[in-house]
Amino acid sequence: MKFQISVLLAQAFIVPSLGMTSAGRRGHGLVGYGISMYRPVCAFACRDILSSATLNCTMAAESMPGMSMDMGEATTDPSCYATDDSFLQTLAYCISTRCQKESVPIWKIEKWWQLNVAGIAAQQPDPKESYQQALEKVSTPPTEVHMQGDPLNKTSLTDDTDYLTSWNADWAFPILDKRSETFGLVIMLSGVAFPIGFSLLRFLPFPALWWSKLNSWVIDPPLIGNKHSTPVLWNLFLMPTRGQALLIGYFTLINIVFASAGIFAIQPNSWNPGDNYGWLLTIISDRMGVLSFANLPLVFLYAGRNNFLLWITNWSHSTFMLLHRYLAVLAMLQAVLHSILWLRLDSHSGGLLAEQREPYWYWGAIGTLGLAILIPTSILPLRRKFYELFLAWHVAISILVVAGSYWHIVFRFEHQWGYEVWMFIVMAIWAFDRILRFLRLARNGIKYAHITIIDDDYVRVTVDGVAGNGHAYLYFPTLTWRVWENHPFSVASTTLPVASHARVKSVEQDIEKHPDVNTTRLSDSIESSSTHSAHGSHKTALTFLLRTQSGLTRHLRAKGGSIPVLVESGYGSHPDLSEYATLIAIAGGVGITAILPLVRAHTGRTKLYWGARTQALIDDFAGPLAHVSKETFVGKRMVIADVLEQELRGETERVVVVVSGPHGMADEVRDVVCKLGRTERVAVQLLEESFSW
Ligand SMILES: Cc1cc2nc3c(=O)[nH]c(=O)nc-3n(C[C@H](O)[C@H](O)[C@H](O)COP(=O)(O)OP(=O)(O)OC[C@H]3O[C@@H](n4cnc5c(N)ncnc54)[C@H](O)[C@@H]3O)c2cc1C
């Protein structure tokens, strides 16, 4: 009697865990994609119903060293399964009769036999005989039916209901799991294919006017209202454009549909006997886990500086950042649902206390909590106010999320079912980005930044011997204790006339003595077609123009002179605007740095409207902009609607309007361009060079 109680308790422990057993051999791929789960079903079902049988070699609690009867343990170890005649022959007979319907070839059964008879551990004894040898020993067909959980001490038949109960679970779960992985792959791959596919559409030979109408109706306007760069709703959110909203809609839709698509319940079922509700919760919870994992590679890819989609599409980094934030929210909600559903399942089955002590449980909790904490601590006001703090926290917690998710899977399944592959993809994306950042830095080495004060608002930074366009991240390791701190700035110029630079240097020495004194102009230091011949002596040097804010830029201004700098360059090359006959550029303040290379390179009609707080900034750019038709506004606002109406009305050629400036200015330009694009017969394209994301 005592022995039977102990066996029953052991069964209670073993049976529910049969479905997703933890230990196992390493799988390669995902379930259904390289990893075959519970196939052939007939063999697994036969093995499962015999797993809880007490064999002659099963060790009861009292015979196990150090175990008392009260501890309620009895185990059948792998060597027992591998050698027990009754077990081997009953299993072989079950397989031979049940697997006929599934037409499983003998070689497959033999292979399965070799790997699974003793158990599913990575290291375990081989069965003492092959499947066919065990079957040959069954000289007369058994007549006695073994009921699941009963002792097994002679070759027996297996009960039909027991078999069906196990078969259903072993058949259904892998199908549902493969669907989860398939949906996960669809999310991840479409998150790569969509940006590529959509940006290829621009090569379709549609009339420019059609594109203009499409952009001004469907792609460029904010989804609601007329603000896109300016925060809305208590400064908490950025309103997506209609084009971005379509993508967000797509990701929302597939994530909602995939949350429950193709899920079914089946009874009898050994995992949730008579409990379809429990089964469905299990499946939905696991689906949530997989979908959350599948969103994370995109979350990391979209946030990366070295996101390869930036190289092959015409999408902006701010669009990817918007999607990064949105998908992160989806992944967080899915992880939270996954955890809540498992909490409900475990507390319902009474196993919560035991589960909570398992490493997989608390690592999973770390992953979910990490995601849940990241979202509220990444809201726009915090990003704007405490950018460096936000960034350090964001990176640290993200590492915890990935580590937590990875260990959650490894402690639970020991690499058996490949769920950790999603985390490997995340790690690869993250490592790729970091390695490329390092290489971009290493390529340039340690340089010196020459800091020139232009006026109360602006400073110019020049770095000799570095090439690049678009924007670069500057590190000033000696400026503050946060040696890793780096900030993006647009490259205003890529070469310097040698003679002028010497003058810049001498004036910099003066600045150190007289920091308030205005210094050389950009027109003196930047290459200017009016003042320097193409054959003049130039050197490679990057020039940046910085508006002083309250963080690193303020320290930089206070420091002045020459300080060591690391330059991570080569980001965001300039778009090719040669197909547009007319370029209308609207710049606000320091936004001119992103506009300057475009207006200087454009060969058609170019008109620049530039508003700045001070004349000093305008004067600084006098040289490089000498040959650009421009109107400047100092201390007064340009009326953007008037400017654009005047430029666009009646324009018969293709026009591109580029804006780079404060959020309000960018939004107004977007609004007016969209309105004119909708109402006028003008082929206009909007391009926003943004200084934030
Ligand atoms: C692609 C790009 C190009 C830019 N080019 C220029 C330029 O040519 N000239 C210029 O003056 N400014 C440029 N900026 C803006 C510039 O990066 C920030 O003004 C600068 O980082 C502020 O530094 P701070 O520590 O003094 O700012 P703080 O006073 O701490 O913050 C001011 C604002 O800058 C934002 N910010 C701070 N650090 C970063 C960062 N590492 N990345 C993004 N935003 C940040 C904050 O969220 C806040 O909104 C550019 C930004 C981007 C994204």
From TrEMBL:
GO MF annotation terms: ferric-chelate reductase activity
Entry keyword Transferase: no
Cellular compartments annotated: Membrane
Keywords of this entry: Ion transport, Membrane, Signal, Transmembrane, Transmembrane helix, Transport
Pfam family, one: Ferric_reduct
GO BP terms: copper ion import; intracellular iron ion homeostasis; iron ion transport
Domain Ferric oxidoreductase: 288-403
Name of this chain's protein: Ferric reductase-like protein transmembrane component 4
Organism listed in the record: Microthyrium microscopicum
